[in-house]
Amino acid sequence: MIRFAWLQFRMQAAIAAGALAIVAVVLAVTGPSLVHLYDTTVAACSSQHACSDATTTFTDTDGPLQVFLDFLVLLGPLLIGMFWGAPLVSREFETGTFRLAWTQGVSRSRWLAVKLGLGALASMLAAGLLSLMVTWWSSDLDLVSADPFDPLGFGVRDLVPVGYAAFAFTLGAAAGLFFRRMLPAMLTALAGYAAVREIVTRWMRPYLFSPSRKSLPITAASPLSFKSGSTGITVYENTKGVSIPDAWIYSVKIADNAGHAPTASFLNRACPLGNYGPLNPRDCSARLAARFHQLVTFQPASRYWPLQWYELAIFLGLAVVLGGLCFWWIRRPVSGPGHLTSRHEPRPPASRARAVELTRLAPAIQSSRSGCHAASVRETIATAGGACRVQHAGAGLPGTWPAGPYPARHQGTVMNLFECEATFEADPDAVWKLWTDVARWPEWDVSKEIAQLDGPFEAGVRGWARQRGNLGGSFTITAVDALRRWVSECPVPLGKVVFEHTLEPVAGGRVRVVKRAEVLGGAAPLLLLFAPRMRRDTAESLAALGRQACHQ
Amino acid sequence: MTAVIETNGLGKQYGRTWALRHCDLTIPEGKVVALVGPNGAGKTTLLHLAVGLLAPTSGTITVLGGRPGGGPAQLGRVGFVAQDTPAYAGLSVGKHLRMGGYLNAKWDQELAESRIGQLGLDPRQKAGSLSGGQRAQLALTLAIAKQPELLLLDEPLASLDPLARREFLQGLMEIVARHGVSVVLSSHLIADLERVCDYIVIIVASQVRLAGEVSGLLASHHRLSGPRRDPRTLPASQHVIEESHTDKQSTLLVRANEPILDPAWTVKRVTLDDLVLAYMSQARDLGPARRSALGVVS
Question: Does residue A409 register a pLDDT over 60?
Answer without folding.
Answer: no
